[in-house]
Amino acid sequence: MEITSVATQGGYGSSNWVTSYLLMFSDSGRNWKQYRQEDSIWGFSGNVNADSVVYYRLQPSIKARFLRFIPLEWNPKGRIGMRIEAFGCAYRSEVIDLDGKSSLLYRFDQKSLSPIKDIISLKFKTMQSDGILLHRAGPSGDYITLELKRGKLFLLINSGAARLPSTHALVNLTLGSLLDDQHWHSVLIQRLGKQVNFTVDEHRHRFHTQGEFSYLDLDYEISFGGISAPSKSVSFSHNNFHGCLENLYFNGVDIIDLAKKQKPQIVIKGNVSFSCSQPQSVPLTFLSSRSYLALSTFSREDEILVSFQFRTWNKAGLLLFSELQLLSGGLLLLLSDGRLKLNLHPPGKLPSDITAGVGLSNGQWHSIALYAKRNHLSLMVDGHMTSASPLGTEIYSGGTYYFGGCPEKSFASKCKSPLGGFQGCMRLISISNEVVDLILVQQGSLGNFSDLQIDSCGISDRCLPNYCEHGGECSQSWSTFHCNCTNTGYTGATCHSSIYEQSCEAYKHRGNASGLYYVDSDGSGPLGPFLLFCNMTETAWTVIQHNGSDLTRVRNTHPGNPYAGFFEYMASMEQLQATINRAEHCEQELAYYCKKSRLVSQQDGTPFSWWVGRTNETQTYWGGSVPDPQKCTCGLEGNCIDDQYHCNCDADRSEWTNDTGFLSYKEHLPVTKIVITDTGRPHSEAAYKLGPLICQGDKSFWNSASFNTEASYLHFPTFHGELSADVSFFFKTTALSGVFLENLGITDFIRIELRSPTTVTFSFDVGNGPFEISVQSPTQFNDNQWHHVRVERNMKEASIQVDQLSPKIQAAPADGHVLLQLNSQLFVGGTATRQRGFLGCIRSLQLNGMALDLEERATVTPGVQPGCRGHCGSYGKLCRHGGRCREKPRGFFCDCASSAYTGPFCAEEISAYFGSGSSVIYNFQENYSLSRNSSSHAAPFHGDMKLSREMITFSFRTTRTPSLLLYLSSFYKEYLSVIIAKNGSFQIRYKLNRYQEPDVINFDFKSMADGQLHHVKINREEEVVFVEIDENARRQVFLSSGSEFTAVKSLVLGRILEHGEVDPDTSLAGAQGFTGCLSAVQLSHVAPLKAALRPSHPAPVTITGHVAESSCVAPAGTDATSRERTHSFTDHSGTMDDREPLTNVIKSDSAVIGGLIAVVIFILLCITAIAVRIYQQKRLYKRNEAKRSENVDSAEAVLKTRGFAMDKNCSYPECTGDGFAAPPSCHVQARTAPGGLIQ
C-alpha cells in the first residue's frame, strides 16, 4: 500500500510512551530501509505523555508492505509504550522480473506518437550496479538510452549532429546514487522538443539536448532491460538489466500489462516472470567506530577462508581481525586511504604488507576474499588476486573473527584496530565456504555484536544533491560531506561566500587603487565573478570592455543587404545586468561617422541604421539623446549642420560628419549590435566606434536608514534562505544594545543583535533548538563608527564575523534539521514586539547577495529617516598624506588641497624631473611692505607672522653634487637650506638669526647622490629639530641660531636665481641647482610641486628651465612617459585571492601605439608639406575643403590613421594606448573640422 502518514500515542492510562523513534519500511520483510525527513533527519519526535497523538505526514509517501517502528528514547519514569496508526491507500503494482539476459521490445504505430514528445515512467529494484533500463535508436544515429552504471542513472540523448563519445561526458546528466540497494526507485523522463525533465526519486534535472534539431529521428520501437536488436547496437559497452521493473509506462501505454497479455506489440526476449523473485541479502550497517561483529567457527585450524562484500565512504577502518594460534597477535585486514592492507599484528611477521585495490571508499559494493593456509597467504579484491611470498611462519586460525571493529578492552579480546573501526555496510559474509545467517545473529543465537543495524544498509550519499555551491567539489565520509572550493572564487563550508567585492565602489573603500579586479555583482548569488577595470577617481568607475572597440568602416549595404556588427563583452548578459542595476549611472559612447549615409528615411521615417541593447529591442535614438525622440545630440541641442534634420548624418552630405554622444539609459545598455543599411549609393560610406560600458558608483553600498526610536523598524518580505543564508550590513550607533534584524517562523527564526556594547550575537533555530554565537570585541561597537557584520548559515555550520575580528563558527548537529523555514515579515532595526529596537544607522543590507532598499522604505516609515551622515569618522583614515575627509550625501571624498599628493585618497605623489639650471619658486610674499596690507589667498604666511615650527617632507633622487634640494628664505636674511655637499653628504642648514652662523646638521654616513630614491622628513618645534632619512637614520638637534622665522619670503626647489647672504656651501649648491627627481614636496600645508604642475587655482609659482612631471620611482634613464606608466601601476600589484588589482596582466597594445606613432608622422609630414604653423590650422581645413572634390579618399586616409585627440589633463595610462578605456574625465573623442572631415 501507499502510506501517507503515521500517528503515535503512549500506552493507555500509563506512564509508558516513546519520545523518539525510527521508522523503517520494506516490501518483503527483509532488507529494511529507514525513512528520512529532509534527507538528513533519521529520527521522529514521539510523545510527551500517554494520551496526546503525534501525527506526521510523510512527504514523500512510502510504498511498502511492512513498517517497523524502532524506539530510541522513552519516558525515563516508565517503559516503552506505543499505540500506532498508519494512514494510506491501495497501491496498484504491475511487476516483471528480468534475469540479466532477458528484455522486452515494444513496437508501436507511428501515427500514435509525436516525434518531439515522450513521457516514460517506471520503477526498478536491483542489487546489480550496471544495466540498460531502456533504449530507443534511429537510422541516422539518434538515440535515447537510460543506463544504470555504478549505481547511478545516466540518461543519454543524441540528436542530429551531437556526438556524445562516452558516458564520461554525461556526468551532468546523471541522477541518483546507490540505486543498487534492492529498494524500489522511481524514474520519470519527460521530453518536449529539446527540453528534457529527468526525475529519479525526488531529484529532478532539467536540461536541453545536444544537436541542431528539436526532434529525434527514431524507429518506432523501444526496448526495456537491454538492447534487443543487434542492429541497434551503440558505441559504448553495456549489460542487460538484472532486477525487477514495476509500473512501466511509455506514453501512457502499460508495457507490463501488454506483456502479461502476450499482445503482438510486445516481443519478449529470454526468460521473464511477472513477480519479483529477486534473492534478498541481509546487509549489516556498522553505525559507529564502536561497532563490531564477532563470529566463532569450528572449521579447520590450519586454514582461514573468509569472504564478504562491503561499501563505505570512509577511507580508513578495520574490516577484519582474525585471531591466530601460536601467535600473540592476529591477521588484520585494513582499509587505509581507500586501499586494502593485509598484515600481521604485531608487525614484522610478514616480509611486507599486502596492498590491493584502489578507490575502495567510493560507496560501491566491493568483494573481498581472504585465504590463508599455513605459510601461504592471498587476497582477492573485486576478482583480482594478490598473493604474498611464502611466510616465514605458519598461520593457524584462532577460531574467532572480528568484522568492522574490536570490542572494548574489558572483554579481554586479542583484537587490535590501529586505524579505528569501520563505518559502512557489509553483506554476504562467508567463513570456510559457509554463508553466515545474519538473522540468527540478530536473534542472538549466533556470535555477538555491538552498535549494529542488521537487515539494513544505512549508507546515504551526502553529495546527492550536491550542496556545494558555485561549482564546489563534493567529497564525503560516512557522517558528513566536505566542499573543495579551490578555483571557484568562493569560500566557506559550502562555497557560498564570494571572495570578491560586488563593485568597484566597494574595492575603493577598502583603499584600493585603479586596476583590474574580479567583481561578483550578486555576491553569493548564482552569477560568477568576472574581470573588469576599476578607475578610482573621486567616485569609482567600472569599465567593461568588448571585442569591437576599433573603428569599423561599412560600405555597400542597403535594406536588402544590411550590415550587422555584434559586440561581445567580458561578462555574460546576466552579469552585465547585475552590474548595471547596482550602478548609480552608466553610459556608453557611440560614435557614428557618415558620408552620404543617413540614419532615418526622410520620406516615411523608416530607420536606415539602428542599434540593439540587452533588451533585444531595436533602438533608433543615438548618442546623447534619450529614448523617446528619434534624435541625436545635435537635434536636442539645436545645432545640427542642417536645421531641417535632427541628426547630422540625415543631412546626407557628401563630406564626412558624425553623430556622436553617450547612451545613458541604463535599461537599454549595453549595446550588443549595430545595423547599417544606407551605404550602397556611390561615394556612400559609414564608420562606427563603440566605447566600453562605463558605470559609476554603487547605489547599494551607501543605501542606508537612520532609526530614531526603539519602536521604529522597517519591514520587508520573508527572507528565503532555506539551505544557505548570508546576511551582511554596516551599522553605527551610540546605543548600548538593539536588534538589527529578525525574521520568525512557526518555530524557526533568525536574529542578529547588538547584545552589549562589545558583543554582536547571531541567534537562530532550524528545528534543532535555538543556537547562538557571539563575537566579543576588546573595544566597544557603540563608538558611532561604521562596523561591518556578516553572518552565514548553511547545512554544515553557522558563522559570524564583525570587522576584522576572528569569526566565530558553530558546527551544525549531525543528522539534524537543515531547512530554515520562515514565514513572517523580515524586521530591520527592530522586532515584531517593538521591543529592543535599534537606535542608529544601518547601511548596505544584503541578503544572499541581494540588496534591500532601506532608503525607499524609510521614506514612508515613521521614526526612520533615509540616509545617514557621518562617514568620515570611519573612512577618514583612508585619506592619506594630510588629505582631509569631506562628507557627501552618499559617502565621502578626500580633499587633497593641503597635501602634496593627489588621487582619490591623496596617495598618488606628484613628482617632477628637474633639468640642469631649472627651479620652482613658490613666493609667499612678493613684497614685505605690500603683503602687510594684502589679503591674497595665495600667501598663506604673512610678513608679520613668526614661524616657530614647520614640517617638511619630500623625496629625491640624483647623482649630482653639489645640489640644492630646498631653500626657504625670509625678508630678514634668515633661511633654511637642504643641500647635498660636494662630498655627497646630506646637510640641513638653519640660519634663524642673521647675525649668527647657520646651524648645520650633517649626515655623512654615505653619499646621498647615489641615484637611489631617498625620503626626508624635517620637523622643527622652535629650537628643536627632528630629522629622519629613509625611515632609519634619525637625529634630534638643538639650534643655537634662533627659534623662529620672521617674514618668510619664498621656497625654492633647484637653482637659486637671486643670491642673498648665504653661507659658501649653500651658495655653491644654489648656483649648481638640482638635476634629478623631486617628489611629494610639502612645507606644512604648502605643496609647491603640486601648485606648479597641478594648479587648481592661480598660485604664486614661477618655473624656470626644464621641469617636467615624472616619477621618482622609475629607474634612471627611462623616458618620462615610461616613468609615469610604471609609477601608475608599480605599487598596486596583487593577486586574485587578496582582492588586489591584477595589474600584472596589463600590457601595452602595440597596435594602438603604432597607430599613435603613425598619427604623429602623418601630422609632421602634413605640416612640412604645406609649410604652415599650428595656429594656421583653419587654413589647412579650407585647403582640405578645396581638395575634397579632387581626392574623395582623403577622409579614408584619416580614418585609417585613427587620429584622436586626448584631453591634455589626462595622465592615466588607460588613455595612452594601453588597451583600456578612458576614464570619464578624459574621454577620447574625434576632432571634427568645420566641414565634417575627421581629423
Automatic annotation (TrEMBL):
<feature type="transmembrane region" description="Helical">
    <location>
        <begin position="1151"/>
        <end position="1175"/>
    </location>
</feature>
<feature type="domain" description="Laminin G">
    <location>
        <begin position="703"/>
        <end position="868"/>
    </location>
</feature>
<keyword id="KW-0812">Transmembrane</keyword>
<keyword id="KW-0677">Repeat</keyword>
<keyword id="KW-0245">EGF-like domain</keyword>
<keyword id="KW-1015">Disulfide bond</keyword>
<dbReference type="GO" id="GO:0016020">
    <property type="term" value="C:membrane"/>
</dbReference>
<dbReference type="InterPro" id="IPR002181">
    <property type="entry name" value="Fibrinogen_a/b/g_C_dom"/>
</dbReference>
<dbReference type="InterPro" id="IPR013320">
    <property type="entry name" value="ConA-like_dom_sf"/>
</dbReference>
<keyword id="KW-0472">Membrane</keyword>
<dbReference type="InterPro" id="IPR036056">
    <property type="entry name" value="Fibrinogen-like_C"/>
</dbReference>
<feature type="region of interest" description="Disordered">
    <location>
        <begin position="1115"/>
        <end position="1136"/>
    </location>
</feature>
<dbReference type="InterPro" id="IPR000742">
    <property type="entry name" value="EGF"/>
</dbReference>
<feature type="domain" description="Laminin G">
    <location>
        <begin position="282"/>
        <end position="457"/>
    </location>
</feature>
<keyword id="KW-0325">Glycoprotein</keyword>
<feature type="domain" description="Laminin G">
    <location>
        <begin position="925"/>
        <end position="1112"/>
    </location>
</feature>
<feature type="domain" description="Fibrinogen C-terminal">
    <location>
        <begin position="495"/>
        <end position="546"/>
    </location>
</feature>
<feature type="domain" description="EGF-like">
    <location>
        <begin position="869"/>
        <end position="907"/>
    </location>
</feature>
<keyword id="KW-0732">Signal</keyword>
<dbReference type="InterPro" id="IPR001791">
    <property type="entry name" value="Laminin_G"/>
</dbReference>
<feature type="domain" description="EGF-like">
    <location>
        <begin position="459"/>
        <end position="496"/>
    </location>
</feature>
<dbReference type="GO" id="GO:0007155">
    <property type="term" value="P:cell adhesion"/>
</dbReference>
<protein>
    <submittedName>
        <fullName>Contactin-associated protein-like 4</fullName>
    </submittedName>
</protein>
<dbReference type="InterPro" id="IPR000421">
    <property type="entry name" value="FA58C"/>
</dbReference>
<feature type="disulfide bond">
    <location>
        <begin position="841"/>
        <end position="868"/>
    </location>
</feature>
<feature type="compositionally biased region" description="Basic and acidic residues">
    <location>
        <begin position="1121"/>
        <end position="1136"/>
    </location>
</feature>
<dbReference type="GO" id="GO:0007399">
    <property type="term" value="P:nervous system development"/>
</dbReference>
<comment type="similarity">
    <text>Belongs to the neurexin family.</text>
</comment>
<dbReference type="Pfam" id="PF00008">
    <property type="entry name" value="EGF"/>
</dbReference>
<dbReference type="Pfam" id="PF00754">
    <property type="entry name" value="F5_F8_type_C"/>
</dbReference>
<dbReference type="Pfam" id="PF02210">
    <property type="entry name" value="Laminin_G_2"/>
</dbReference>
<feature type="domain" description="Laminin G">
    <location>
        <begin position="95"/>
        <end position="276"/>
    </location>
</feature>
<feature type="domain" description="F5/8 type C">
    <location>
        <begin position="1"/>
        <end position="89"/>
    </location>
</feature>
<keyword id="KW-0130">Cell adhesion</keyword>
<keyword id="KW-1133">Transmembrane helix</keyword>
<dbReference type="InterPro" id="IPR050372">
    <property type="entry name" value="Neurexin-related_CASP"/>
</dbReference>
<dbReference type="InterPro" id="IPR008979">
    <property type="entry name" value="Galactose-bd-like_sf"/>
</dbReference>
